[in-house]
Amino acid sequence: MLFLRPQLEKLGLVAEKSGVDALIIASPENVEYFTGVKSLADATLILFYDHKNRITRVYTPLLDYYRYRNQLADKNVEVIALSKTVKPEDAETIDLDWGELVKKLAESGRVGYDAGFTSPLAGVVLRSLKEYTDLTNSITSIRMVKEDWEVEAIKKAVDVTIEGIRRVAERAYEGVSETELAGIFEESVRRLGIEDYSFPPIINAMPNNSYPHNTPTANKVKKNDVIVVDVGVRVEGRCSDLTRVIIRGRIPADIKRLIEIVGEALAEAIDHIQPGAKAGEIADIAVKVMEKHGVRNRFIHGLGHGIGVVVHEPPYLRVGSETILDKNMVFTIEPGLYIPGYVGVRVEEDVLLTSRGARVLSESLNRIIET
Fold first, then answer.
1. CA max distance for the chain
2. What is the dihedral sign for C-alpha 213, 347, 297, 269?
3. In a domain, 3, yes or no
4. Residue 281 confidence class, pLDDT cut points 50, 70, 90
5. 152 and 138, same structural domain?
6. Are residues 213 and 278 located together in one domain of the fold?
7. CATH number of the structural domain spanning residue 110
8. Total tally of structural domains belonging to the chain
9. Do 334 and 204 fall within a single domain?
C-alpha cells in the first residue's frame, strides 16, 4: 500500500486566507490533498479543521474508519466514524447523520466550505449550513503551485508513462485492437509498480480518434493508420497525462498536414510560457496558429490544464482565462485537431513552469512515433 504525503500544515493557511474560524472540506480530492490518504471519487467524508483550537478531524462512514485511522501519517488527527447502528469497541463513533454533523460543526464560528469542488455531500452540506465562506479560491491557489516533492512525483509519473507508451508503440502492429493496446499499457506500467492510473487509458486508431475522449474498442489497427495514445499514471498521489501520435505505414497528405499544424501550435505555445503570463494568452497563441491554417473550428477543447492530485485541475489554459501562471505550476499543453468520423490528432506535453520559462518534463519521448 502506497502512503501519500499529507499537507495538513496548509489548513491553517487556508483558514487565514479565507478569514474563517473553521474549515469543512468535503471534496474527496481536497481531503486526499490535505490528509495524504487516497480518496475514492464517490467517497462521503469530511475533513474538519478548527483554526482557533488547532483541532483536525476526519469524519468517515464506518467502512472507511480503520483505513483512515491506520494510514494517516499525523496521529494527532482524530478519526471519527458516523454510525447509528454498529459501534465496534475499537472505533470512535458518533450517533449523527451527515446533516446533523455539519450543523454541529457550524457552531465553531465563521465556517469555510470548499463549495466549488465536486462532492457527494454537497447537497447535504449546503442544506445544513446557514452561511459559509467559499474556500475554492484559497484552496486552488495553494494546490496550483507545487512543492518540490510534488514536482519530483510528477516527473516519476511522466517517466513511467513514457515507458508505457513505448511498449504500446512496439506492439501497434496491423490487426491489434485498441483494447489490446490498452492492456499492453496497463500491464507495462503495473510491472513498474504503478498502483493507480490518472484516468482510464484512451487509445484509439482511425476513425475512433476523431473524438477527443473515447474509450478503447475492438477496432483494429489497419495497415496504414494513425493511433492516438492518451494515458497517465499516479505516483505518490500525483498525476501524469501524456498524448502521442503513432503512425503506422503511409498516411495521406491531409493527415500529415494536421499533425504538422498541431506540432506548430504546441511549439509556439510552449515558447511563450513565462511566469506572469495569463493562461488565456497562451491559449490564444495556439488558437492563432490554427486560424492561420484555416482549421480553428477543428480545435474543440482547451489548450491545457493543471495536473496534481487529479488529472484535471487548475490552472486551465483556455481562451479568456485570467489565471496568472507562476513558478512551480505543472500543466499540460495539448492542441488537437479533429475531423469527425475520419481522424483526430493530438499531442500533449507535461510542462513545469520555472523562473526561466517552460520545462517540458516529457521531452524524451518523440511527439510523433513512426512504426
1. 71
2. positive
3. no
4. very high
5. no
6. yes
7. 3.40.350.10
8. 2
9. yes
**CA 298 distance to own-chain centroid:** 24
Cβ neighbors of 187 (< 8 A, separation 6 or more) are none
Which phi and psi angles does 11 have, rounded to 5°?
Answer: -60, -40
Whether 69 is in a domain gets the answer yes
Q: How many CB atoms lie within 10 A of CB 22?
A: 22
Determine contact, residues 326/275, Cβ cutoff 8 Å: yes
| pLDDT of amino acid 2 | 54
pLDDT above 60 for 61: yes
d(CA 235, CA 150): 9
Domain boundary among 142, 158, 179: 142
Please give the residue range of the domain that contains residue 289.
148-370
Per the CB < 8 A criterion, the answer to whether 178 and 217 are in contact is yes
Strands (E), 124-188: 133-134
Instruction: For 147-204, write each residue's pLDDT tens digit.
Output: 999 999 999 999 999 999 999 999 999 999 999 999 999 999 999 999 999 999 999 9
Structure confidence by residue, pLDDT tens digits, 132-147: 999 999 999 999 999 9
Q: What share of residues in the chain are helix, strand, coil (percent, to 5)?
A: 35, 25, 40
User: 2 in a domain, yes or no?
Assistant: no
Mean pLDDT, the chain, integer: 96
